Amino acid sequence: MNTANLITIASIPVAVSFWEHASLWSIRLSLLSMVIALAMQLRGLRAVDRRVVSIWFLGSLLALGHSIGSLLTFHHGSQADAVASTAEQTRELLGFAFGAGLYVNYVFVLVWIIDASFRMIAPGRYERLPAFYYQCVNCFLIFIAFNGAIVFKAGIVRWIGCGCCALLVYLWWDQKLLFGGAEIQKKRKM
């Protein structure tokens, strides 16, 4: 076997202390919250339904906790170390260093918290936003979550991420096939 053709998996921090585990589990639970909230919406609940909003907001707070916790535990509070680590992981996986990916993660958390807060504070106004807003926010969040849970992970975390993505695709497809989207859209507007 030619080892030059093997893909190198990025060196990912391994948790040792309680706080490192807390940081890693907060993002895992955050992404699970995202999947649950999106699945609830695909099954007909409105984006501003109290149950969806609660899970969506919890997920955004857990993502914030991960960002802060990861910076403090894995990078000892050093933004420069976090950027360098992100660049190295990207280089190992994709062949080029891109430390600015860390800032994309910060934007991910910020967008999610703003969206979750908007749903909670002004649900009526949120529902009147154009579908384009909803699609852009969800596509951005899902794209970053996909990369964080599948592209930049290995082993069981990647497989669980793939399973969650498959579930969401199935629910989306099922909604389109069975209802043509019309019945679900009607429920969302009620």
Task: Provide the fold topology.
Elements: H1 18-42, H2 50-73, H3 79-94, H4 101-121, H5 123-127, H6 131-151, H7 155-179, H8 182-189
Helix pairs in contact: 1-2, 1-7, 2-4, 4-6, 6-7
Question: How would you describe this structure in keywords?
Answer:
190 residues, mainly alpha
Protein model, in words:
With 190 residues, the chain is mainly α. It has one domain (16-189). Helix content is 76%, strand content 0%. It is built from eight helices and no strands. The chain has helices at residues 18-42, 50-73, 79-94, 101-121, 123-127, 131-151, 155-179, 182-189. The longest helix is centred in the N-terminal third of the chain and has 25 residues, at 18-42. The protein is globular and about 45 Å long. 25% of the residues are buried. Mean pLDDT is 86; it is low at 1-11.
How many distinct folded domains?
Answer: 1
C-alpha Rg, in Å? 18 Å
The helical percent reads over 70%
Mean pLDDT across residues = 86
Q: What fraction of residues sit in β-strands? A: under 5%
Dominant shape: globular
Q: Characterize the largest beta sheet: strand count, sense, and whether it forms a barrel.
A: none
Segments where pLDDT lies below 50 for 5+ residues? 1-11
Count of individual beta strands: 0
Give the helix tally: 8
What letter string, H or E per element, gives the SSE order?
A: HHHHHHHH
Task: Name the structural class.
Answer: mainly alpha
Distance, first to last CA: 60 Å
